[in-house]
Amino acid sequence: AQRVTQPEKLLSVFKGAPVELKCNYSYSGSPELFWYVQYSRQRLQLLLRHISRESIKGFTADLNKGETSFHLKKPFAQEEDSAMYYCALMRVTGTYKYIFGTGTRLKVLA
Amino acid sequence: EAGVTQFPSHSVIEKGQTVTLRCDPISGHDNLYWYRRVMGKEIKFLLHFVKESKQDESGMPNNRFLAERTGGTYSTLKVQPAELEDSGVYFCASSPILEAFFGQGTRLTVV
Q1: Which of A95, A98, A101 has the CB atom closest to B100's CB atom?
Q2: Cα torsion at A87, A92, A98, A104 (round to 10°)?
Q3: A38-68 pLDDT, tens per residue?
Q4: Any chain A CB within 8 A of the CB of B36?
């Protein structure tokens, strides 16, 4: 079964502390993985995708096929990082569609 | 460039009533998706249009939900009759290929 698991509903860290938002997936093929973010009163938007191997707003995520994980990391959290983060898997066989995790709310405390 | 627009932003209806949600995708995006987030749960796929054709409607909960995309432009999602469990936030997204651009969502409350 195709599934995305985000084990933490809420993650609170202090400003300047490292952040790691966990994401594990279950998928039989080669996954396309993404992180989406929703800031307060804004729409859901793409943060980064594994295929481009980029760093956005200081966040990085590495696909670990052995552990079937795609954890999101940032070395020093900022208050403006507080938001809801969703890990998503794009199924690319048959029809394209996203499978989302339940999301993790990140609170960065001053 | 205008983003994905959804209307209304909020809707409160009584059980048994009908509600129609509308989504205007980004111009030129052939792919249009509907998703729903029920409180505390994941964002779940409802269906996928490619232009005016339903490519995948495997996520539609039951036959009380009807989605259309006339002429491959805007899409509507009608719930008739609405039940309490239909409450949630309904997201629309459009995509040229992989990256999906989301609307603000419609918060539907069935009382």
Answers
A1: A98
A2: -10
A3: 999 899 999 998 877 778 899 999 889 899 9
A4: no
